[in-house]
TrEMBL record:
Keyword S-adenosyl-L-methionine among UniProt keywords: no
Sorted UniProt keywords: Hydrolase
Protein name per Swiss-Prot or TrEMBL: SMP-30/Gluconolactonase/LRE-like region domain-containing protein
MF term (GO), any: hydrolase activity
Entry-linked Pfam families: SGL
Family matches, as InterPro entries: 6-blade_b-propeller_TolB-like, SGL, SMP-30/CGR1_Lactonase
Originating species: Janibacter melonis
Amino acid sequence: MTTTSLVVRDGLDFGEGPRWRGGLLWFSDFYRHAVYTFDPETGDETKVVDVPGQPSGLGWLPDGRMLVVSMTDHRVLRLEPDGSLVEHADISEHCGFHANDMVVDDQGRAYVGNFGYDLHADMDERDVETILADEQAGLTNLVRVDPDGTVSVAAPDVRFPNGMVLLDGGRTLVLAETLRLQLTAFTVQPDGSLTNRRVWASTAPQMVAPDGIAADPDGGIWVAAALGAAVVRYAEGGEVTGTVQTTQNAFACAVGGPDGRTLYAMTAPGSEPVHVDGRSAGTIEAATL
């Protein structure tokens, strides 16, 4: 299946961390420094909260309070019912450079990725192929934050841990290792620890650098291609089973909509700040699955 998306909202700088919740698409915008919602019925965008430290991954605790990654200060913040944004956890000890995407399970445990190092500075010095071949580039930890704010390393030696999804009722966590060109699966133990690390799908044959990812109702994983204008669907084992062509590079995605079968992609001309910060060139695009 190959289809083409339609732009449903423009004017973003760099959209990230989209999540479908309560009939709305929630997302972060790095360079507008805020979390927003998008209503696909009306086309309206509403600001939820400002995040001066640059927001990224989103999730919710069991009681409905929202968690948001604050990238540049390596924190997970919590939005309280009175509208105040407070520190939930400081993950600096285990981060290499900016914190990034996040998934929160139904117990309120948050798994948080980070860049590992200054990728954009490296891209100014080396080509993409050289960076991908350097096994030390972006090597860092996947971090776990328990509901009480306790921080630990969930998985060491991952390369630029990025988007994540939970499958099998939360028993499997799949992580996009952007610079390893791989979706990596773990078994989630009852205490939240991750075991049985394995390759869920290699994205290397298509040269897809997996950024944000989203699971669909049929068990496939949609992968924002980052280096290309597409979101690609993988089955476990690595078979490509669908592609949505986007108008510009796709960096994050979510599956939602009233019937749970709309793919939303966050797109932009590139990921380097000079190309997107303050330029209002980012979009939300949508396709029916």
